[in-house]
Amino acid sequence: MSEHFDVLIVGAGISGIGAAYHLKQQCPDRSFAVLEAMESFGGTWLMHTYPGVRSDSDLYTFGYRFKPWLGPPIATAQEILDYMGEVIEENDLAAHIRYRHKIVSASFSRASNRWTLEVAKTDSGEKTTITCTFLWMCQGYYRHAEGYTPDWPGLGDYKGQVVHPQTWPKDIDLKNKEVLVIGSGATTATVVPAIAGDCKHVTVLQRSPTYFIPGRNINELVETLRQIGVDETWIHEIARKKILFDQAEFTRRSFEEPEAVKQELLAGVRMFLGPDYDMTHFTPRYRPWRQRIAFVPDGDLFQGITAGKATMVTDEIDHFTPQGVRLKSGRELAADVVITATGFQLSVLGDIPFSVDGKPVDWADTVTYRGMMFTGVPNMVWIFGYFRASWTLRVDLVCDFVCRLLNHMKATGTQRVEVVLPDDQKAPPMPWIDPENFNPGYLMRSIQALPKRGVGHEWQHTQDYWREKNELPAIDLEEAVFLYG
Q1: Which residue from 3, 38, 206, 320 puts its CA 20 to 30 A from 437's CA?
Q2: pLDDT, tens digit, for every residue of 39-55?
Q3: Alpha carbons 42 and 99: distance in angstroms, whole number
């Protein structure tokens, strides 16, 4: 016997908990469960345990719109977990979440208008079957089991310890060690300040620099509003609006005035490093916003450099040696421990085998409707957030859409919905996202496995919150792209 739910939510991370909240609030008559493969909620914030792990988005916009954030703008993983735990407790969501439930396969039948999920309990290995009418994928977009480490020549010859931040060992000892951190993104900017005090020295090796925004980990507008006694709900809303206004302007200027924005970003870093520092280590070859820009609270990464605890090296790896790394310049970097902060592996829909009417789904053959529904795959929505704004902003928007869609289907007595690509959109489909506008390594390595985008913006994940915040609530659920059954 299998259990049946109206809705199954896959994943108990920031997206899945948001989906559960909105579903309970907006569709209170629907039965639902949340399936989570890990032992608790939190997703990214539960899995990542490397030193200093923190958000690279402000929590006034990364937090949910319905729950005010009371802490500092940049938060630790534990602070985010505490916040999510409060959402679960305050809204009685715990009874709906099933931990250690890993989906083995998912198949949809148009004859029955049901999804059938084969599920394995990770603690016992027991297999079970669960069915649902609607499947809500909130499992994130990278592979939790392993991070991305390039296949460098000679890596097997290295005699020291190699660690990826995504699978940080609990028993690692960095005290008085020469540590080499490979990578230049937000993870590096987080790990280095957290470990520099214990290590003998930290060397950061980057192939190319990254843009950073240093600043105080405080929102002065929020502090002022608190001082004058404004209610926290209002403070949360005002802070979100101000931050989003500033982000929209920054994004616009990144495209229209890229050189001016570049110089402003470099000036912010130079304030911490001083006028004599070699800024080539922080001067990327690309214009701002072609890759994500990380906020560095209180400039802690740069303070470590000026204190002599960390050194930047911009070069490429030729090969590993038993003692460390030989660079293409001929220089050798010796290290007791190498930390590969080199990114993650993209996971498309959780790496779950999907089928519709017995035919396997190849996501690369589908076209996305607004980055959340896919041609040929009924009764399913995927939450995929923003790159240039906080992920959770899109969680709230997509949740509103899904709940409105579910209520519309109930009102019209329909059991199935899928999206159909109009004839005028059937030009050769394009990659999920335009690499000229955004091209991080994890996307470029796996973009061939992602769904395609069409010509019109409604057949794309535009990454434009400022447009979608108006468009998604205004979607006409009776427009021709929706096929009901």
Answers
A1: 206
A2: 999 999 999 999 999 99
A3: 11
Which residues are CB-neighbours of 264 under 8 A, at least 6 positions away?
none
Strand partners, 130: 3, 117
Check: CATH 3.30.1510.10 for 3-144+346-484? no
Rounded CA separation 1/299 (Å): 57
Pick the more confident residue, 432 or 230. 230
- Strand, coil or helix: what is 171? coil
User: What topology is assigned to 149-342 in CATH?
Assistant: FAD/NAD(P)-binding domain (3.50.50)
Structural tokens at position 179: 């540590």
The two beta strands, 212-215 and 294-297, are: parallel
3-state helix, strand, coil in the chain (%, to 5): 35, 25, 40
User: CA nearest 353: which of 132, 35, 107, 105?
Assistant: 105
Is the Cβ–Cβ distance between 453 and 432 less than 8 Å?
yes
Fill in the amino acid letter for 280.
T
Phi, psi of 245 (to 5 degrees): -65, -45
> Is the pLDDT score of 397 beyond 80?
yes
Provide the residue ranges of all domains of the chain, joining segments of one domain with +: 3-144+346-484, 149-342
Rounded CA-CA distance 427/110 in Å is: 27
pLDDT at 1: 67
CA 174 to chain centroid, in Å, comes to: 28
Residue 344 scores a pLDDT above 90: no
The DSSP bridge partners found for residue 381 are: 136
